[in-house]
Amino acid sequence: xxxxxxxxxxxxxxxxxxxxxxxxxxxxxxxxxxxxxxxxxxxxxxxxxxxxxxxxxxxxxxxxxxxxxxxxxxxxxxxxxxxxxxxxxxxxxxxxxxxxxxxxxxxxxxxxxxxxxxxxxxxxxxxxxxxxxxxxxxxxxxxxxxxxxxxxxxxxxxxxxxxxxxxxxxxxxxxxxxxxxxxxxxxxxxxxxxxxxxxxxxxxxxxxxxxxxxxxxxxxxxxxxxxxxxxxxxxxxxxxxxxxxxxxxxxxxxxxxxxxxxxxxxxxxxxxxxxxxxxxxxxxxxxxxxxxxxxxxxxxxxxxxxxxxxxxxxxxxxxxxxxxxxxxxxxxxxxxxxxxxxxxxxxxxxxxxxxxxxxxxxxxxxxxxxxxxxxxxxxxxxxxxxxxxxxxxxxxxxxxxxxxxxxxxxxxxxxxxxxxxxxxxxxxxxxxxxxxxxxxxxxxxxxxxxxxxxxxxxxxxxxxxxxxxxxxxxxxxxxxxxxxxxxxxxxxxxxxxxxxxxxxxxxxxxxxxxxxxxxxxxxxxxxxxxxxxxxxxxxxxxxxxxxxxxxxxxxxxxxxxxxxxxxxxxxxxxxxxxxxxxxxxxxxxxxxxxxxxxxxxxxxxxxxxxxxxxxxxxxxxxxxxxxxxxxxxxxxxxxxxxxxxxxxxxxxxxxxxxxxxxxxxxxxxxxxxxxxxxxxxxxxxxxxxxxxxxxxxxxxxxxxxxxx
Length: 708
Prior knowledge:
Elements: H1 16-27, H2 32-44, H3 50-59, H4 69-82, E1 87-91, H5 97-117, H6 119-133, E2 135-142, E3 151-156, E4 161-163, E5 177-185, H7 186-192, H8 197-204, H9 221-232, E6 241-242, E7 247-266, E8 271-273, H10 279-286, E9 290-306, E10 309-315, E11 325-329, E12 331-332, E13 339-340, H11 342-365, E14 368-371, H12 380-388, H13 406-409, E15 410-413, H14 416-437, H15 453-466, H16 468-493, E16 499-503, E17 512-516, E18 518-519, E19 525-526, E20 534-538, H17 545-560, H18 567-576, H19 583-594, H20 605-656, H21 662-707
Antiparallel strand pairs: 1-20, 2-3, 2-11, 4-5, 5-7, 6-7, 7-8, 7-9, 9-10, 12-13, 14-15, 16-17, 18-19
Helix pairs in contact: 4-6, 5-16, 6-16, 7-8, 11-14, 17-18, 18-19, 20-21
């Protein structure tokens, strides 16, 4: 409930007659709250009706309750807390670095708002009501406390909310109205609506001090109108005011109205309301960058009432045309649509457990006495009292007629065989409670027939599968809560200028500041968040300590099987999963000790400069090595040219002196062999030169990529 002080504006809206119609519609709905209250009483341990308790007391039987529903429900709640994932803001159009930084800044602000506003606690409380009675409600609102968090998330009791029974969509997109009621002290209500102080004062006193017959011109006409509304209101005053306690029931009705509006469909996919006085809108239409269409749109309004008195009727502050409250649906009956939860399924089995327990306890302590009328001189009450005592004393009548044996005159019997049967039936009924809910012993951490870890994991997974519908509804409602919060956040951030947001604040190596809505002085904004389309999604992995520990163990086993050369590359992922003090410092020290290089985006400016200098030195060394190789190749090429010239000269002499001596031929053959050796050596050096040149180019490109 948005508790914002406001001044009343006289305008067309929901009137008292329409409020009475909605209240009549509510009274005609199925009485599902009776079953919901009974189910919650079973969770609290109030499982015996007053008539049953009085009958047990009259019979002398113990009113024993063995509550098996509460630990089963608590086990399901524990599984939700254990497997909880964070909500994250995802940008649909983050296509470049600037848009990604903008999305990261929005996500950082959203995470802070969730943490400070109590998102997890609100969703957990709503989830408890969802699985217990079939429906829970959560709300997201702006906080009025200037010294507290900006947004507040909380769970709403189911009795505060009434809704349009014809709605079928889980997100209430087809719901026409929602009514919420809350009892407030008179001074608090007067603070919320300062211009209605007189009306509230007269209303709390049943208008006893106001006489419409003596109205003068000095009396506010609004008071006269309020008196007429009270006089014609056909509801009992005790339903909405407490004169002794000075409390009044405020009602707010969120109702959906439909309007036809001109909207622009931009090429980027965004849809905005058309403003004919906005030059950019007109230019976009003429330039063919947007399409103008007239479409029906829904608008949520809220009307406040104090009994029969309309207080204010205004447009709802909730963003995106949503209601400010979110339902957490459990199960719904197909015929009537009544919500119900897990407890409704287990109530018959719980009743049987209690009755069997009461019967078993009674059988264990009850004794049947069979005696002759003259077996003792004690009265009936004295005999029964002594029979119940462990050290009881019963004195037989020495003048009794039946003196054959004591057993013939007095017998005390107990039905232990029937008690064993009752105990077995009770054990079967206790197991039925978990079976009807679809929750197994392994799911609750209890002993089961499964012995191996795989079998136990399968039973836990099977329990999660049977709760799939409830958990799907919960995840959907949790995303709706996040969407409401994101809408409030985007609206408030769009009004700020030059707003700095710190992202990755937990990691010193990645921490940076992103400025939003930067005003350059000319009216043009940089990093304008109104151009960012964002939505709410669940984080891809769980963030609970237990899940991180399991993942770290699995990753450690995988790293142990990797080659030694590949292990340092995988250690970064293992370090990120550790939950230890001074985590960032520990990771930095381990990376330094293992000589694991950092990613370029993780380096600070000093480290980037050092990496750049190191890359330049490596490049200079590679150039020197290349020059040395080139000098060797040039030397070999010169020698090869000299030997080739000598060979040509000798060949010419051999041709002219065909019949020369054998010495000349031998020298020619030797020279030819030497030429072949030089040519092979030249080819080998050229191949080494090409390979080294390719390696140098690849190394330089890698260094440049790392620096960028």
